[in-house]
Structures are given as C-alpha cells and as structure tokens.
C-alpha cells in the first residue's frame, strides 16, 4: 500500500485548492442552487393559488406579500432561477449529444447560459412592469 510520503507528500484525495475555478464549475453549482431554490418558489406559487381558492381575505394577504418590495425581489430571483435552471438543462441536453464539448466552446456556452438568463430575466420583468 502506498502512503502519502511515498507519493511525494501529495494529498490522498483531490482537494478544491488544486483545481482552477472555471465558469463551467460555477454554472454547475448555480444549476444545483437554482434547482433547490425553485422548490421554495413553488411553495410560494402554491400558497398564492391556495389563498386565491380560499377567498378574498387570504388572497389579499398572499397577494400583498408577493407584491411588496420584498416579494417582488423574491419573485425576480425566482424568475432568474427558473430561466437559469432551464438554460442549464438545455446546455446539458446539448452536451448529451456530444455537441459543444470542446474546451473553449464549453466555456462560451456556460457564459451564454449566465448572460442569457440575466438578459431574459430583465426583459421579462421589463415587459411585466411596462404592461403593469
């Protein structure tokens, strides 16, 4: 059995300090975080729908919370999370076919996922606020 000393003092398992952060790593983490965040966003949607079915008073409360400044910030973040998670899923779907897997292309597609999610979120919210 080889020990750490016999291997030149290297660690027995990889550690984050030996990896160089890449955009694809960050997008992978964001994909997982947005997936988890979407569970909480779904709870808000269910609360709003149940309140709408329960009557005017519960709906007024739920609608008041979700249309407050804090509620709008949460909804904005949920919109970004949904779009980012969807684009990340499309990115992985394309990768499943072996397309865009070259080192430079992978990074460009990951950046496009991030930038596209931000731009689409701003466009959607701009349209919503404009129509409001």
Key features of this structure:
3 helical TM bundles of succinate and fumarate reductases, mainly alpha, elongated, 132 residues
Describe this structure as you would to a colleague.
With 132 residues, this protein is mainly alpha-helical. It has a single domain, classed as 3 helical TM bundles of succinate and fumarate reductases (Up-down Bundle), CATH 1.20.1300. 76% of the residues lie in helices and 0% in strands. The protein is elongated and about 70 Å long. The mean pLDDT is 89.
- The CATH architecture name reads Up-down Bundle
Q: Roughly what fraction of the amino acids lie in strands?
A: under 5%
- Uncertain segments are none
**CATH fold field value:** 3 helical TM bundles of succinate and fumarate reductases
Quick structural gist:
It is built from four helices and no strands.
Write the layout of secondary structure elements.
Layout lengths: L22 H32 L1 H11 L2 H28 L6 H29 L1
Helix pairs in contact: 1-2, 1-3, 3-4
